[in-house]
Amino acid sequence: MLSGLNHLTLAVTDLNRSVNFYHQVLHLQIDATWDNGAYLSLPGLWLCLSLDPSRQSEPAAEYTHYAFTAAASDFPALVARLRAAKVQEWRDNRSEGASFYFLDPDGHSSKCTSAI
Predict the structure, then answer these.
(1) Cβ atoms within 10 Å, residue 91
(2) Potential cystine with 101: which of 51, 62, 109, 111 (Cβ 3.0-4.6 Å)?
(3) pLDDT in tens for each of the 116 residues of the chain?
(4) Are 58 and 105 in contact (CB under 8 A)?
């Protein structure tokens, strides 16, 4: 029986750019780095960035994405920080509640959702 999700790995084309994005813009903690990868975390999530220069940095057209949660009181400031960093918006919010859909530097689809 599964007991949880161990980590999520994203293939990236520029490791330093991606580490900076997840650490500086989204405020994930850097836990470990090595020549071709890094582990970053939030409570309950390990994110592995793995260098893959052959990856295409174009977003997929489907709805596949990963989502982060932010406190309702922090949500407007988070969206403002993402927009100030010129993060590309991915799609309009069509779900209940406040959500901001965006792309990371390699075109991975993401969203931040306001906690209720």
Answers:
(1) 15
(2) 111
(3) 656 777 899 999 999 999 999 999 999 999 999 999 999 999 989 999 999 888 776 666 677 788 899 999 999 999 999 999 999 998 888 878 899 999 999 999 899 998 86
(4) no
